[in-house]
Design goal:
about 160 residues; mainly beta; four-stranded antiparallel β-sheet; about 55% strand
Length: about 160
Amino acid sequence: MLRTAEIRTELTAREDTHLLYWRSSLEFSLDCFICERTGRTTLFDVGAEQALCSGSRSGLKRHHAPARIAGFDTTSGRERLALRALVDFWWAPFTDSRDSGKAAAPTRHPWVRLHLASYCPVAKEAGTGSIQTNLVRPARITCEHCDLLLAVDREAPAVRLLG
């Protein structure tokens, strides 16, 4: 069955001398019916027709997953940077091959990591960073080159199953 998850997040208190933007990739936990494992980290890139499942520790290693980013919208304002991503994925019921847990769509504990990129005008260097659902909030995002505060992550990314 085809399912769609919506992922939303927002950074606030933006500093405007640095360029800060969302990178077009994300990681999302899904229950994978191919390797029959629950809570697999699945890697997504905008424009890719399939995702990449981290696989199981024993047996099937990384493999293609029937999932993709269906929508990736960002908004940037003087004091906020927001992201809304739609992730389409195929899901089927199964029992985990290792611990006998039942699969769910999305997984019982949805987890997401969203990637950021920045440019520091002081160091004239690019930088990277990320936020994820299991960080202590509020989380401060600072420039890796000059330690200037770039933004604040006040709330965990929201994951919602659509339809």
